[in-house]
Design brief:
Elements: H1 11-22, E1 34-38, E2 41-45, E3 48-49, E4 53-54, E5 57-59, E6 68-69, H2 71-86, E7 92-94, E8 117-121, H3 132-135, H4 158-168, E9 173-178, H5 180-189, E10 200-202, E11 209-214, H6 238-248, H7 268-275
Parallel strand pairs: 5-7, 9-10
Antiparallel strand pairs: 1-2, 3-6, 4-5, 8-11, 9-11
Length: 277
């Protein structure tokens, strides 16, 4: 085959992926825990659900989010909530984890497909336990100024740094993603032990929540390896400055109009899992 041609994804797989993205299963796949994935995404069998109410946490936006994950992920989030509560924090607001069987989620969230990623809102201000209706449209405010160059000092609290550190110290954490301005604030204010800053990495968005990414659990050979671990050091170097240099760079010309991107090429085993009754 000439090199300019690329193999096409079979039409049946494309249609299956589109149907899955439109309306995924609402129940987990029974059986032993099994994560399957590749660079495009994945799925999980045997997922368990994070409780909507547990000591130190509340799920939010239940009508728009999903709270399923590997049992280790759920246990570690419950541990984070207990640790934060014992330190005097209000209940943590828990955002997206994964669908009941993983796979594509509405609105993207490519990384939230295998039950080992979780969004936790960075709202450390006192707040009560809310009824479900009051949680549905909850949107904690951004901690980042509109220009993206620094945090909003009227909203930033030392507790934000303390909560992020708690997340980095959970067992099996691969990295914790936040907005570059939040990482910059940590770099300029954290004193004493700064080793944990290595695990906090800048990423697009993430101005009001952190994304906790866990390593593949033991005994999951079909779980794709995570990216290379964070490099040595605290990350307060040129790699962080790169994010702010981009703000000063001239805008790039609009790309030419192309065909819509193809749906993620999920492993065939995942498509079968997501289509199963």
């Amino acid at each position: 085959m000439p090199p300019r041609f690329r193999p096409l994804i079979p039409l049946t797989l494309l249609l299956a992926a589109l149907l899955i993205m439109a309306a995924g299963p609402t129940t987990p796949m029974p059986g032993p825990v099994h994560i399957i994935g590749n660079s495009a995404g994945g799925c999980i069998q045997g997922a368990v659900r994070l409780p909507d109410d547990a000591p130190g946490l509340q799920t939010v936006r239940v009508g728009k989010s999903n709270f399923w994950g590997h049992p280790d992920t759920i246990a570690r989030l419950l541990q984070l909530a207990r640790t934060a509560s014992a330190a005097g924090f209000p209940d943590l607001y828990m955002g997206d984890l994964s669908n009941p069987r993983g796979g594509p989620m509405p609105g993207g969230h490519v990384s939230h497909q295998m039950g080992i990623d979780a969004d936790v809102y960075l709202d450390v201000n006192p707040h009560p336990r809310l009824p479900f209706a009051a949680r549905e449209n909850l949107e904690p405010p951004s901690l980042v100024r509109p220009d993206g160059r620094s945090v909003d000092q009227s909203r930033w609290r030392p507790e934000h740094a303390a909560l992020l550190r708690m997340a980095t110290e959970l067992p099996g954490v691969d990295r914790v993603l936040v907005n570059a301005a939040i990482k910059k604030q940590l770099c300029s204010t954290v004193t004493g032990d700064r080793a944990w800053l290595r695990m906090v990495r800048p990423w697009y968005g993430h101005a009001s929540h952190m994304h906790i990414s866990f390593l593949c659990p033991a005994g999951q050979p079909d779980c794709p390896p995570r990216p290379a671990p964070p490099p040595p050091g605290d990350g307060c170097d040129a790699s962080l400055q790169w994010w702010f240099d981009r703000l000063d760079a001239p805008p790039k010309p609009a790309p030419p109009v192309t065909k819509p991107p193809r749906p993620p090429a999920l492993p065939a085993a995942c498509i079968a899992m997501l289509k199963a009754p």
